Amino acid sequence: MRDVVHDYLKEVLPVHKTREQQLRFVGRLLVEMDNESLISRDGLKWKLLADSTENISNPTE
Predict the structure, then answer these.
(1) Once rounded to an integer, what is the mean pLDDT over residues 43-52?
(2) Of 8, 11, 31, 48, which is the most exposed, with the fewest CB atoms less than 10 Å away?
């Protein structure tokens, strides 16, 4: 799954980092989002939670 997310985000990831560093960054980001209940994990699949879209579009609320 990290690879899929990486491919989607690669244009906005820091270019000075190697691909492996970028993959680790994406992995840590997914774990942090899971800890904040923005996504859930079902095996190797990550799912965006419905309530989390409100947090993303209105981060100050």
Answers:
(1) 76
(2) 11
